[in-house]
Amino acid sequence: MCSSSVSCEDQYITNVTLENLKDRAIIVFKIYLRIGPNYFVEIEDFDEKPLILKPFEVFHKEYDPIDLYSINLNRIDLNSLFSSKRARKNIVLATSDGKYVVKAHINRWDPVYDFFKNHLTAVIHPRRATFKGKSYGLNTKYIVEITAENGKSEIIPIYPRDYEIKKFRKFRLTKDTLESKDSLEEYLYEQVGEGLLNCIDINVHDIGAWLEEAYESESKKTIEATYYSWLTYHIIGPVITKISDFRLRMKNRQMRKERANKKLNKDASR
Asked: What is the pLDDT of residues 43-82, one digit of tens each?
């Protein structure tokens, strides 16, 4: 199931359910969401410990908001494809077809292999930064940790427009209080002094600044995902790949030739 929320700008997978209807176990290495014929969004990676779905067993998992999608070092925007009715969406599993034996050869599939045959294949990775084991999305501005008198702590994510809603039961945030980490922390302690917030400690983390620094390289350039039809992907894609591979071979050959000439000239000058 896909969803969008106030937590992040991108639509993301909120949950996945797999049911093995066969009478034999299935070994799952990776789970992808395929959008159109060529975009593979990685949902799960079980490479280190493959998921073994026993006969008629069910696997279900819930997912937190993502920060962004990335391909190589670029950010990629998939929202138009998520909303497109033309771009068909399917769950694709990277599995072994047969018994799973450690250190034995497994005939498995991965869209990375397809890329070398067709450069229109794109393997996309959701990126999630976590705070104490949970992701809150790229739009998170601050994380507020509140410790109550009984020692229990509560984590409250703060988003840029949270001054428009009642985030706390007895008071509202203001636009000015969200200008900086210090102003928010000072405002919250004022509410403690007025008896509107019961706690013994408040810690505000500037997650927005941290995320901006963490994703600096991806945020500089965002690629807009383009829809490719079945014909474009399966017919034109391999042709483009052959041309691209040929150009790369020619470029590498030219570089080797130039290096050889430089070496000859260097030896001749001695």
From this structure: 999 988 899 988 889 899 999 889 999 988 889 999 999 9
Q: Are strands 153-158 and 142-147 parallel, antiparallel or unpaired?
A: antiparallel
Residue 198, judged by CB atoms within 10 A of its CB (0-12, 13-18, 19+), counts as exposed
CA distances from 185 to 67, 170, 194 (A): 24, 17, 15
Tell which residue, 82, 100, 1, has the closest CA to residue 39. 82
Query: How many alpha carbons fall within 13 Å on the CB side of residue 40?
Result: 22
Three-state DSSP class for residue 239:
helix
Question: Which structure tokens are listed for 129?
Answer: 């930064």
| pTM above threshold 0.70 | no
Please report which confidence band the pLDDT of residue 106 belongs to, taking 50, 70 and 90 as the band edges: very low
At a CB cut-off of 8 Å and minimum separation 6, what does 256 contact?
none
Antiparallel, parallel or unpaired: β 39-45 and 122-127: parallel
Distance CA 176, CA 164 (A): 12
Strand segments (E) across 78-192? 89-96, 122-127, 130-131, 134-135, 142-147, 153-158
How far apart, in whole angstroms, are the C-alpha atoms of residue 61 and residue 51? 13
DSSP string over 2-56:
EEEETTEEEEEE-EEEEE--SSS-EEEEEEEEEETTTEEEEEEE-SSS-EEE-TT
At 157 the three-state DSSP class reads strand
Cα(65)–Cα(63) distance, rounded to whole angstroms? 7
